[in-house]
Amino acid sequence: VHQSKMDFFCKLGYGKQDICKVLENLGQEALEDDVLKELIRMGSKPQALENQAQPSQLKLVARGSCGTTPRLKWLGEDGSDSSDSLRPIVIDGSNVAMSHGNKEVFSCWGIQLAVDWFRERGHTYIKVFVPLWRKEPPRQDSPIADQHILGELEKQSVLIYTPSRKVKGKRVVCYDDRYIVKVAYEKDGVIVSNDHYRDLQNENPEWKWFIEQRLLMYSFVSNRFMPPDDPLGRHGPTLSNFLSKKPVLPERKWQPCPYGKKCTYGNKCKFYHPERQHQAQLSVADELRAKTKAPSALGKEEERCRCSP
């Protein structure tokens, strides 16, 4: 009887010490209701209620420390950074700035718009090439707008000045297009420009192929940098595949044939026929020709066997 009562109240969650005290006071033959009333009077509570009554102690973990609690993984924490799959970007700064300034003003804001567009896509390697003399105060024949943007991009290690100097009052400028194509070719990246670089294509045959395949043209629409969705034409890759090192091929979705089993096009039908998966998709005319050729071929073989000695 004692053991059964102990098991009963232990299942309710009360401690063994409290149960033993109550049974000693009331006796072993006390009713279960009386034992329960005495446990409540003593203030004993089941362990489940005690755990609910005690507030859970939250552990404060310092920012950046290694905690055992699960947390969300941000981009790059699991080692698979999306920037690793994106191509480096080399921007022709003069071409972009003059295009944004309507070929009248060297608009540095256009360069900033192009850089921001590629940053939002996740590109980390972005370089802009601009001649060094654009750092000088603007003149009437070459106006510059928002020149302070060049200094900000230079501090961010995004903008690179191509060298230039003055010799006897004349400015000697290095060919910045050669810098652009050379860096993009070595980095296996993308050139952002509306220039075709025909002189450099004739200079180096390897550069010719690279410029034809990796030149990304663009347009400015209401201060919005917009490259085309099909950089290499209608039948070429999409913009996302063009800018990524590992292009993703879209799944080919077949449209079911509207004629169904009544279709007579056979293998010339451009639609999907689920009933022809394991059959040779021949047209009706081709099937008839195949059937007529089969018996004629068998008859010829029999004639040959008869004529043979």
Automatic annotation (TrEMBL):
Keyword Zinc: yes
Alphabetized UniProt keyword annotations: Endonuclease, Hydrolase, Magnesium, Metal-binding, Nuclease, Zinc, Zinc-finger
Protein name, UniProt field: ZC12D ribonuclease
An MF annotation (GO) of this entry: hydrolase activity
Coiled coil: none
Family, as annotated: Belongs to the ZC3H12 family.
Domain C3H1-type span(s) in chain numbering: 251-276
GO cellular component: cytoplasmic ribonucleoprotein granule; nucleus
Zinc finger C3H1-type: from-to: 251-276
Lineage top rank: taxon: Eukaryota
Pfam families on file: RNase_Zc3h12a, UBA_6
Organism, as annotated: Leiothrix lutea (Red-billed leiothrix)
Necessary cofactors: Mg(2+)
